[in-house]
């Protein structure tokens, strides 16, 4: 039997399965992948899967600063 290959999730540090069935590798989950993308893209991940809208909206900037 072969041991399942795992990597450490760059986001949360938990072990993530490194296999075709893990679509989010090297992350452990979709959530971690979204968080990581959002961290450098906008500093916000409130709407998972729709990351870019508030980047162009002035209201979005205000909200983000208020939220910190
Ligand atoms: Zn993770």
From TrEMBL:
User: Any note on cofactor binding?
Assistant: Binds 1 zinc ion.
Which coenzymes or cofactors are required?
Answer: Zn(2+)
Tree of life domain = Bacteria
Residues involved in Zn(2+) binding = 9, 12, 28, 32
Region: Disordered; residue ranges are 49-68
Q: Which Pfam families match?
A: YacG (PF03884)
Q: Name one GO biological process term.
A: regulation of DNA-templated transcription
Molecular function GO terms recorded: DNA topoisomerase type II (double strand cut, ATP-hydrolyzing) inhibitor activity; zinc ion binding
UniProtKB keywords: Metal-binding, Zinc
Please verify whether the record's keywords include Zinc.
Answer: yes
Question: Which InterPro entries does the UniProt record give?
Answer: DNA_gyrase_inhibitor_YacG, Znf_NHR/GATA
Described by its record, this protein's role is as follows: Inhibits all the catalytic activities of DNA gyrase by preventing its interaction with DNA. Acts by binding directly to the C-terminal domain of GyrB, which probably disrupts DNA binding by the gyrase.
UniProt lists the family membership as follows: Belongs to the DNA gyrase inhibitor YacG family.
What is annotated about its quaternary structure and interactions? Interacts with GyrB.
Protein name, as recorded: DNA gyrase inhibitor YacG
Tell me what organism the protein belongs to.
Azonexus fungiphilus
């Amino acid at each position: 039997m072969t041991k399942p290959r795992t990597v450490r999730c760059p986001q949360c540090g938990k072990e993530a399965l490194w296999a075709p069935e893990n679509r989010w590798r090297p992350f452990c989950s979709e959530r971690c992948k979204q968080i990581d993308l959002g961290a450098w893209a906008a500093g916000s991940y409130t709407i998972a899967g729709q990351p870019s809208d508030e980047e162009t909206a002035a209201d979005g900037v205000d909200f983000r600063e208020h939220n910190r």
